[in-house]
């Protein structure tokens, strides 16, 4: 019998929500850290130069880390990039600040906000905020497909 440390906790496969998804392979306890969101560290200006800044694709693997940096999971990303959005999520993404105070060493971890059963898809609320007007076209581009009774219809959140 494999040791608990060697038991595979998550698997990536096709999702009914969107594209690929990440699923629990074993029970995940509430409060458990599941995976770190990995990728190449970029400044916001570098990301804008690579991808633009208007949110015109409706798809992104960029995760804001802090005011200076973000993580680009398009480059050197791991399976955390396949965790889909839901308006009724079972996980949350937490930004952990580096103990040294170096913003380049901050990290993002995905944590269970309730018990997750084997076979259940992992989801969190992306909380995407774009600094452009949320037109009908943009809302359609960023449409939510979570299927939850609580679904807002879009991944976009109001500007702060």
Structural class: mainly beta
Q: Please give the largest β-sheet.
A: 3 strands, antiparallel
The average pLDDT is 90
Write the H/E string, N to C: EEEEHEEEEEEH
What is the CA-CA span between the terminal residues? 50 Å
CATH architectural label: Beta Complex
**Count of discrete alpha- or pi-helical segments spanning 4 or more residues:** 2
CATH H-level homologous superfamily name: SET domain
Strands side by side in the biggest sheet? 3-9-8
Radius of gyration: 16 Å
Strand content: 25-35%
List descriptors.
about 160 residues, about 25% strand, 3-stranded antiparallel sheet, 2 helices
Describe this entry's structure for a reader.
The protein is mostly beta strands. The protein has a single domain (4-127), classed as Beta Complex (Beta-clip-like). The chain is built from 2 helices and 10 strands, in the order E-E-E-E-H-E-E-E-E-E-E-H. The termini are far apart. The chain has helices spanning 44-51, 136-141; strands at residues 10-14, 20-24, 33-37, 40-43, 62-64, 69-72, 84-85, 91-96, 107-112, 123-124. Helices cover 9% and strands 26% of the residues. It is globular and about 40 Å long.
Quick gist of this model?
The protein is mainly beta. The chain has helices at 44-51, 136-141; strands spanning 10-14, 20-24, 33-37, 40-43, 62-64, 69-72, 84-85, 91-96, 107-112, 123-124. A hairpin with a 5-residue loop joins strand 1 (10-14) and strand 2 (20-24).
In terms of topology, how is this protein built?
Layout: E1 10-14, E2 20-24, E3 33-37, E4 40-43, H1 44-51, E5 62-64, E6 69-72, E7 84-85, E8 91-96, E9 107-112, E10 123-124, H2 136-141
Parallel strand pairs: 7-10
Antiparallel strand pairs: 1-2, 3-9, 4-6, 5-6, 8-9
């Amino acid at each position: 019998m494999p040791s608990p440390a060697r038991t595979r906790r998550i698997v990536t496969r096709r999702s009914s929500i969107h594209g690929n998804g990440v699923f629990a392979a074993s029970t995940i306890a509430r409060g458990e850290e599941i995976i770190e969101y990995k990728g190449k560290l970029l400044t916001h200006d570098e990301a804008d130069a690579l991808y633009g800044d208007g949110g015109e694709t409706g798809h992104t693997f960029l995760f804001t880390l802090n005011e200076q940096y973000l993580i680009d999971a398009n480059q050197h990303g791991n399976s955390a990039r396949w965790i889909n959005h839901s308006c009724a999520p079972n996980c949350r993404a937490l930004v952990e600040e580096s103990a040294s105070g170096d913003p380049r060493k901050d990290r993002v971890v995905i944590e269970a906000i309730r018990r997750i059963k084997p076979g259940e898809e992992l989801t969190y609320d992306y909380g995407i905020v774009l600094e452009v007007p949320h037109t009908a076209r943009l809302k359609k581009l960023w449409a939510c497909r979570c299927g939850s009774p609580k679904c807002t219809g879009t991944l976009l959140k109001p500007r702060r």
